[in-house]
């Protein structure tokens, strides 16, 4: 019998737990909606539906063990009351609606933010692994391991990259949990200095390195409904984060309404409070030049700031960015699918689960990349764009 895809509630990214703690303390009654979208065209999930549903059922039976809770309690930014809450926590299957319409997977998550926030990453990992099991039942593991070793050799052999640091951000779209584990262990052993670790809590625990991550788009999106005014939503989210973590986990995500609009809000106060910024859409060179110029305008030396890159990276792209900007800031890299789903020659599925509503109101991510915007309400998307003074993106709702 095939083992379950998700075997622990720690098999997820750190930022889901850090955001969950902030939700518990600040907005425990908020109600939200998330929706799944597969950006890869013409994918038929019909044959996968029953297995995906079965895996979700299993996921909703999991609870954190005492050892897992002790591990989380050892992360000093997670507070005792949150650990006590997690001791009782289970995901609730009633909050997930799943069906397949003409091959298209329709997945909606609705319920209290506090009780649905942990669904996203394991659900995407389930969909990705079940799809791979159905379509690539006998991959060439020898070839996959050869490509993995080539990546390790590339990092080790790149002149001038001694200070290059990168992490695994590949939980959501991995080929399988077993392959993910093998990849993380191989990079930890092969590149003990350059490989900083992983965003995955279970694997961070396994390799004995601190988990990587801070916040995701949904945290800033939610404040479009929770904040006092829409125009102040980014500042409200950043204030909430600072209030929760008091200087820890200080990397801010910039592309919920686009880099230009973000920087208008990211004044001297925030620029000094936060350790750095994370890039997740748009041209990374243009983004970096804007970030460096912004810090310099504020009379802040960007050499003291961490710029984290996490948008569709390959090892080659990451090394190129490092060599270009290492003398101007402190670059770091989160590499995802290129590490954890470079097994077969077919490109991995491009898919996301994003928050689309909070407290009954539409919320949106505008992004800096065409096609990444996601919103169920075209009118709200146009209004959000107008308020922040950015172009209204085209959204493919299929």
Question: What would you say about this model in short?
Answer:
This protein is α/β, with parallel strands linked by helices. It folds into two domains: 14-137 and 349-388, nicotinate phosphoribosyltransferase (Alpha-Beta Barrel); 141-214 and 249-341, nicotinate phosphoribosyltransferase (Alpha-Beta Barrel), CATH 3.20.140. It is built from 17 helices and eleven strands.
Explain what this protein looks like in three dimensions.
With 398 residues, the chain is of the alpha/beta class. It folds into two domains: 14-137 and 349-388, nicotinate phosphoribosyltransferase (Alpha-Beta Barrel); 141-214 and 249-341, nicotinate phosphoribosyltransferase, CATH 3.20.140. The protein has helices at residues 14-26, 49-59, 66-73, 80-87, 113-116, 120-135, 141-157, 177-190, 201-207, 217-226, 233-245, 259-265, 268-273, 284-297, 315-325, 337-340, 378-388; strands at 31-38, 96-101, 104-112, 166-168, 195-198, 251-253, 276-279, 306-309, 330-335, 351-358, 361-362. The strands form two sheets. The chain has a six-stranded parallel β-sheet with strand order 5-4-9-8-7-6. Helix 8 (177-190) links the parallel strand 4 (166-168) and strand 5. The longest helix has 17 residues, at 141-157. It starts with 13 loop residues before the first helix and ends in a 10-residue tail after the last helix.
